[in-house]
């Protein structure tokens, strides 16, 4: 097991390996643990609590106890504490980036960038906290004064993914705290250390004990923890980022207590290059959108459609760029593509690759595992001759595999792009302003990138439609998901 020194952390207490419940770091009550592995080589990074139902209950109790005082704290004071949390995250950006890249595998510069991205959500919601304004309604009768006030939803259960283990925590927890909610959080078992480190900084910032509680659990024990939160009527909202089947399960299971839900689920993003596109910009955009985090991103382009007139030029230029990507462990400064998060992830990319080849796709670059680096490295791959029957065009590959399909007509490609249950992100490249607005209106998604590969931001609403879920994170809309409206009518005024 490595420690803070071998991780090269300047601030040793960022490496937290216990649950945070009621402001105290504590082991699981049954003293069980599980191992967090470095995806680069499978070595053990740390052991963290393998929590059970009793730990989940303790976390809810702590959040419940802390709720009235946090709810009643003036928004300006909550904002001040969030701002201090933001400042501490930025102050420890390098250490947090090291920790993140070690447990998650993304290259150091990307990991460092993710910490800044996470901090941007905390800062944004610190500012939004003071703007949770209600309404004064012009009353239809003169004897009444009618108002709407916004109130925190209550205790929030945040269930966060491994692919952006810092940013997704911040994107859920910062608006919850800003709204006056308290939180119980279960980070993904593959990458829980970033969550624990961020929670430690929240405590240091002065966020009171019990306002933010983090409980870790292995894949096997996660259902026991989450079931407690689903069944407890005091938990008023679930915010989840992950797969569509798990999101559907959470929606079904939370029906009995009628919780609010924010579900950021799977994607199958189309990336369309029209014949009038700037090809250099389109290649650049696809490189940025697809190979960020080795393709393990919900908004990653998954189906690439290129107009037949520019197909060969685009594919050749893309293959040259992809073939030059440097694959390696996060700790090496040059690495641009790290390992996949776990064995299941590698196997999925491989199975999509083999399926596509069996159905007639052709490899332009990559197309294999990089066994000399270790069992979890995939060569960044470009395939041509892809078609909609291939698994990589139907399901999210979540890896560094681009499969290019040709198209001839705008209407055809829009129909193909929308022919999926999912609706998270879509990208297209065109220089024709009329086409740009036609296509934007026609795409059935929550996020559209026009001539842009990296579109997410704390200032923009993130979320999908159809099987990609509902709810919006970030932006001026992000606070509302953690609040409810109370209508107040005062009568007898005449
Ligand atoms: C995700 O797709 O999982 C998050 C990506 C982002 O916020 O940029």
Describe this structure in words.
The chain is α/β, with parallel strands linked by helices and 494 residues long. 37% of the residues lie in helices and 21% in strands. The chain contains 14 helices and 22 strands. It has helices at residues 53-72, 75-91, 93-104, 108-129, 167-179, 193-205, 222-231, 244-253, 279-291, 311-323, 343-358, 391-394, 410-418, 433-442, and strands spanning 19-21, 24-26, 33-37, 44-49, 135-137, 145-152, 155-159, 182-186, 212-214, 235-241, 260-264, 269-273, 301-307, 362-365, 381-384, 401-407, 422-423, 425-429, 447-450, 465-466, 469-470, 483-490. Strands 14-15-16-13-12-18-19 form a 7-stranded mixed sheet, sandwiched between helices. The chain has a 6-stranded mixed sheet with strand order 9-8-7-10-11-21, sandwiched between helices. It has a 3-stranded antiparallel sheet with strand order 5-6-22, with no helix packed on it. The mean pLDDT is 97. The structure holds succinic acid. Residues 163-164, 167, 297-299, 456, 462 line the site of succinic acid.
